[in-house]
Amino acid sequence: MRKNIVAGNWKMNTTLEEGVELADQINSLLQGKEKNCDVVICVPFTHLTSVNAVIDPELIGLGAENCSEHEKGAYTGEISAAMVKSTGATHVILGHSERRQYFGENNEQLLAKTQKALEHGLTPIFCVGEVLEERENGTYNDVVASQVEALFSLSPEDFSKIVIAYEPVWAIGTGKTATADQAEDMHAHIRKVIENKYGKEIADNTSILYGGSCKPGNAKELFAKPDVDGGLIGGAALDAESFMGIIEAFN
After folding, report:
1. For the chain, what percentages of helix, strand and coil (3-state, to nearest 5) are there?
2. Residue 47: is its pLDDT beyond 80?
3. Is the pLDDT of residue 154 over 80?
4. Residue 43: phi, psi to the nearest 5?
5. What is the pLDDT, as a whole number, of residue 170?
6. Nearest to 7, CA basis, from 35, 32, 31, 42
7. Listed residue (209, 220, 225) closest to 245, CA to CA
8. Which pLDDT score, from 0 to 100, does residue 239 have?
9. Residue 199's Cα: distance from chain center in Å?
10. Which SS3 state, helix, strand or coil, does residue 107 take?
């Protein structure tokens, strides 16, 4: 059975001290609570080890926001999957629209990053999504399919370890949100693309998260859709109470 997951993406926010405090708050709020989803917080590289020390791994998974496609070597400023794993992290976000847009990450590079993450036992949260122009010109289904298909050289066993996050780029940080029906349509499309390659069982067991301005106010409606298995949360993940409100949308 596929998992319901609520994952926070802190992006380039919080100092180390602020990040540890936020993680501690989330951990405290989860103590003794019944939750019907897995919870993951993906934090800046500088925070990983310190955050790992204050969270209960039974309650919260720890993730990085990126990793290198290289194993090690003369790549100043890069962080390898092995380094991420050594901090206690279990997950890594790959292919976020901001990485694609600002740092020019392409399908070939993202496949290599995904392979490195899998080699080191990390669960990739692999992001796909269309920009406003692609939504408006009607190419969005093809665009997203091609991003998912970038991983199709992976074995069925490896692909089955991946979480997909659909982020309509036009709905990130803009205040716009895809309707629950638009999200469901795309999630169902992604699941069909996976099924056509890997078969129904793997498609049915792949968690597909929604990542476009998901907040406590709209999470319940989004998560009620049959192909929406949770969220990759940006701004609302930086406030412990808001993040809890989204987690509780599964209750």
Report:
1. 50, 15, 35
2. yes
3. yes
4. -120, 165
5. 87
6. 42
7. 220
8. 98
9. 23
10. helix
- Residue 61 CA to residue 7 CA, distance in Å, equals 9
Residue-wise over 198-230: b if at least 16 C-beta within 10 A, else e? beeebbeebbbbbbbbbbbebbeebbebebbbb
**Distance between CA 171 and CA 51 in Å, rounded?**
29
Active-site residue set: 96, 167
Tokens in use for 152?
Answer: 């199709």
- Evaluate the CA torsion angle 60, 66, 70, 72 in order and state its sign: negative
Place 165 in a pLDDT band, splitting at 50, 70 and 90: very high
pLDDT in tens, 177-216: 789 999 999 999 999 999 999 999 999 999 999 998 899 9
Taken in order 230, 164, 142, 201, is the CA torsion positive or negative? negative
83 burial (CB, 10 Å; 0-12 / 13-18 / 19+) is middle
* Residue 196 to residues 1, 149, 192, Cα–Cα distance (Å): 19, 11, 6
DSSP assignment of 50-61, as one string? HHHHHS-TTT-E
pTM higher than 0.70 for the full model?
Answer: yes
Amino acid at the residue 55: I
Q: Are 16 and 47 in contact (CB under 8 A)?
A: yes
Lowest mean pLDDT: which of 6-10, 19-23, 210-214, 235-239? Answer: 210-214
- Is-contact 5 250, C-beta < 8 A? no
